[in-house]
Design goal:
Largest sheet: 4 strands, antiparallel
Helix content: 10-25%
Number of helices: 2
Order of helices and strands: HEEEEEEEEEEEEEEEEEEEEEH
Distance between the termini: 192 Å
Length: about 375
């Protein structure tokens, strides 16, 4: 009777051993999903190089990765088990590699001792209604050449040499297009900036209201936007640019154009070329009284000092006191004359009374004698 019990125990032990061995085999042959790529960093002249490797072969896991240079995002991609990338850099630049689920890694770029005059380039980009605005900056004194804007699925566009200072350039891209700003580096490129053109909402010409007001020396152009992005506007008078404005999202702007009556004025998108409004300058009444509804000329309104304006609109000088046809003297002058007259009358009365009193006393004295 004990033989079946012993047999069952032996079978159970064998099965458990097989399961344990199978688990070890599976663990050994399965891809190491938790094994992140090890990133290696190298300083180059005007750039840095990153290379990474998981140490495994055949893995298909990815890590969402963000690259920052001096706190600004310059690239975003899915890091696979192995690869590499070169980024443009100025001496002292700080890079951060952020990967989903992993600690952030920081790297400080130092130019090699034999590095001579590397490019001192800065790049920033913004999506506007009609184009991608890219601002290039050169912190050095040597013009930076060889810059390209690479558009995914389209190709490259050459950028003119960038001298000292900053320069704004506009590029027309399809909504959602991925782009890269690169410079030559050995047989390849150094990436300085990348991103996606994300066209703002409500970026159509009918989102811009244009109002024209004729003035004595031309026309005033008022602009109001309800678009979700920036419009760059130019005003043309007889085909020549007479003024420009940057119309912010949901903002207002004004352009004053000097022009003569009859001048044709066109308002358009300075980048995309879409027409926003047009107008012919009129001839407003300037420097003359405005006629009343019955066609007569209204009586000039007296000014604050009581004088009537001259026919040319200026204030006429008041007539001199005492002159023929002058208005009566009023105000402070009248008060002074009144006081002077009162003093004269009072002095005369006093002298009269004093003289009379002396005469009376003299007469009385003579009678007694």
């Amino acid at each position: 009777m004990r033989t079946p019990v012993l047999l069952r125990r032996l079978l159970g032990t064998a099965v458990g051993s097989l399961l344990l061995i199978g688990g070890l085999v599976l663990a050994t042959t399965a891809p190491a999903g938790a094994d992140p790529p090890e990133v290696r960093f190298e300083n180059l002249c005007g750039a840095v190089a990153f290379n990474w490797d998981t140490g495994t072969i055949g893995g298909d896991e990815t890590w969402a990765t963000t690259v920052l240079r001096d706190g600004v995002v310059i690239d975003e991609f899915e890091m696979r088990e192995r690869g590499g990338q070169e980024y443009g850099a100025r001496d002292g630049a700080v890079f951060e590699i952020r990967r989903e689920g992993l600690p952030t890694r920081e790297y400080l770029h130092r130019s090699p001792d034999d590095c001579v005059d590397p490019p001192q380039l800065t790049v920033a980009a913004a999506s506007e209604c009609s184009s991608l605005l890219v601002t290039f900056g050169n912190l050095g004194t040597t013009p930076i050449t060889g810059i390209q804007l690479l558009i995914e699925g389209v190709g490259g566009r050459d950028v003119p040499p960038i001298g000292t200072g900053t320069r704004d350039l506009h590029f027309g891209l399809a909504d959602g297009a991925r782009f890269y700003v690169v410079t030559p580096l050995g047989s390849g490129f150094a990436h300085w900036f990348s991103g996606t053109y994300d066209k703002p909402e409500r970026c159509t010409p009918d989102e811009v209201e244009v109002r024209f007001t004729d003035e004595c020396d031309g026309v005033r152009v008022d602009l109001t936007s309800t678009a979700g992005g920036v419009f760059r506007v130019e005003v043309l008078a007889e085909g020549s640019v007479a003024g420009t404005a940057v119309l912010a999202a949901g903002g207002d702007a004004r352009v004053d154009v000097t022009a003569t009556p009859g001048t044709a004025v066109l308002v358009r998108d300075a980048v995309g070329g879409s027409e926003l409004g047009r107008h012919t300058v009129g001839k407003p009444a300037c420097g003359s009284p405005t006629p009343t509804s019955d066609g007569s000329t209204p009586t000039p309104t007296p000014t604050s000092d009581g004088t009537a304006p001259a026919p040319d609109g200026s204030s006429a000088a008041p007539p001199a006191p005492g002159g023929g046809g002058g208005l009566p003297v009023t105000g402070a002058s009248t008060t002074l004359f009144t006081l002077a007259g009162s003093l004269l009358v009072g002095t005369g009365v006093a002298l009269f009374l004093l003289t009379r009193r002396r005469r009376l006393r003299f007469s009385a004295g003579a009678g007694r004698a």
